[in-house]
């Protein structure tokens, strides 16, 4: 049995290791197309801060780790898939055959169609190559404009601030992290960031980016905002969203929506072809609707499940994903925030209710969202301890019974609710 793994990020690496354990005698080939050993993108901010060097981002430290596991590493970009012949075509023209295929190609940052977005001082922050380019331009005092204040945008802000740049963040939404924070929470994060000296412009976009020389200034770039403001910049960082790497699946029977659609075994519409990580859309825990949950722990969990189902042999078994739970934990210039599950809540006419606790002065916030007596979502700011209990209640779909009313009266008692309801086996209703 030959397993071909496309992608050598966290999903590809965990799949290769799991396969080796579950199928000791199978052939495993793992492919990536970047100029580095398998690494973790989430370590890039630490690299930019200067806390680690590039080797600190590597997922596995031993130089011969994959050799010892008999995982053949290959460099190349998959450009086409033939599901009849079970082959993948790579950009150097060679074909690789497979018995089982894992698509773990992750996603890529999207550059919005703005005039000037391809100028060399306009960078995304996704790969080690991007990090090297940013480090070259983001010197102390440099004028940096960051386009987008989503999850990735907030994560890299800390690294940029530590590099001593003058930072302006421009966000199309009406608040920071609009796709994972309630209006109140997003507004609090904005205020926090502004207090730390970052200029934040919300409900605005970048209209164009010009060379300073053509716009009559000595700055490398001039950025024009939809508000009419024109800003001199040394560097623009685009953090405006990502799209799964699925181009090579065009004209194949592998079903793709935004990402590759998989079932709860991480198998695609084509038997024998699996997908995991940022490229995969798996069923959501609550709704069953397909969802890309683009964080590293999800990539690892999904890869483990995919690999167990790809393997045949003594240790292999049918392994299922218990639904994807959206989880985001953010450290924005020292302010910790999190969102879990359906943080935006459910409509009252289908059993939805919620409660919001706000302490603006101390930057503390908690929103709990229920469907009937089950906690389905939460958003928090300033809670650094015990948020695992929120996750536990949501992930376990724990029936709260009379604890729901207690939580509505005092949302901070969620740890007590967790202990009371989920530590007693009989209290778990589902
Ligand atoms: C700056 C930054 C900070 C982040 N911080 C966090 C964080 O704090 N917490 C968190 O949980 N997540 C974080 N993330 C997200 C996290 O990195 C991703 O969820 C994770 O990398 C997903 O793993 P993956 O293996 O699915 O995809 P990736 O890590 O993207 O790996 C995909 C691999 O596939 C390869 N590939 C792509 N296309 C092809 C092709 N056609 N052929 C062959 N190979 C291909 C790529 O070279 C790459 O090696 C961060 C991401 C970034 C960019």
What does this structure look like?
By secondary structure, this protein is α/β, with parallel strands linked by helices. It has helices spanning 10-22, 44-49, 65-68, 128-137, 151-162, 183-195, 212-215, 296-310, 387-395, 403-409, 414-422; strands at 2-6, 27-32, 71-75, 78-82, 87-90, 95-97, 100-103, 107-109, 122-124, 143-147, 166-170, 199-201, 206-211, 221-225, 230-233, 235-238, 242-244, 260-261, 273-275, 280-283, 290-291, 327-332, 335-341, 352-359, 364-371, 374-381. The chain has a five-stranded parallel beta sheet with strand order 3-2-1-7-19. The relative contact order is 0.12. Bound molecules: flavin-adenine dinucleotide. Residues 6-12, 31-34, 41-42, 44-45, 77-78, 104-106, 125-126, 152, 155-156, 245, 248, 277-278, 294-297, 299 line the site of flavin-adenine dinucleotide.
């Amino acid at each position: 049995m030959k397993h071909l793994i496309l992608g050598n990020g966290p999903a590809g690496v965990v799949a290769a290791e799991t396969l080796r354990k579950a199928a000791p005698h199978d052939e495993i080939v793992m492919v990536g197309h970047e100029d580095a050993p398998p690494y973790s993108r989430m370590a890039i901010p630490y690299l930019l801060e200067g806390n680690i060097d590039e080797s600190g981002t590597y997922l596995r430290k031993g130089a011969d780790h994959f050799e010892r596991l008999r995982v053949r590493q290959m460099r190349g970009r998959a450009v086409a898939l033939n599901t009849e012949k079970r082959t993948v075509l790579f950009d150097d023209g060679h074909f690789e055959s497979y018995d089982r295929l894992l698509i773990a190609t992750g996603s890529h940052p999207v550059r919005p169609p703005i005039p000037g977005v391809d100028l060399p001082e306009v960078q995304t922050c996704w790969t080690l190559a991007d990090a090297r380019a940013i480090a070259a331009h983001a010197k102390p005092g440099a004028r940096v404009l960051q386009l987008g204040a989503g999850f990735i945008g907030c994560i890299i802000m800390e690294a940029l601030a530590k590099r001593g740049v003058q930072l302006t963040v421009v966000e199309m939404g009406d608040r920071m992290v609009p796709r994972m924070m309630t209006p109140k929470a997003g507004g609090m994060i904005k205020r926090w960031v502004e207090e730390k000296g970052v200029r934040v412009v919300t409900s605005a976009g970048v209209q164009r980016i010009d060379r300073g020389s053509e716009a009559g200034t000595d700055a490398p770039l001039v950025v024009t905002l939809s508000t009419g403001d024109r800003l001199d910049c040394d560097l623009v960082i685009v953090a405006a969203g990502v799209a799964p790497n699925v181009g090579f699946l065009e004209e194949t029977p592998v079903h793709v929506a935004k990402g590759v659609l998989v079932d709860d075994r991480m198998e695609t519409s084509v038997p024998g072809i699996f997908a995991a990580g940022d490229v995969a859309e798996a069923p959501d825990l609550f709704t069953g609707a397909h969802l890309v949950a683009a964080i590293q722990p999800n990539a690892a969990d999904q890869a483990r499940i995919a690999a167990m189902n790809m393997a045949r042999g003594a240790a292999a078994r049918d392994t299922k994903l218990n639904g994807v739970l959206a989880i985001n934990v953010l450290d924005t210039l020292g302010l910790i925030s999190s969102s879990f599950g359906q943080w935006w809540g459910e409509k009252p006419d289908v059993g939805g209710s919620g409660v919001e606790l706000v302490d603006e002065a101390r930057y503390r916030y908690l929103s709990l969202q229920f469907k009937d007596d089950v906690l389905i979502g939460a958003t928090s700011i300033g809670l650094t301890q015990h948020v695992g209990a929120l996750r536990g209640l949501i992930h376990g779909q724990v029936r709260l019974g009379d604890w729901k009313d207690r939580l509505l009266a005092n949302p901070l008692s969620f740890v007590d609710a967790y202990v009371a309801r989920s530590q007693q086996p009989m209290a778990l209703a589902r």
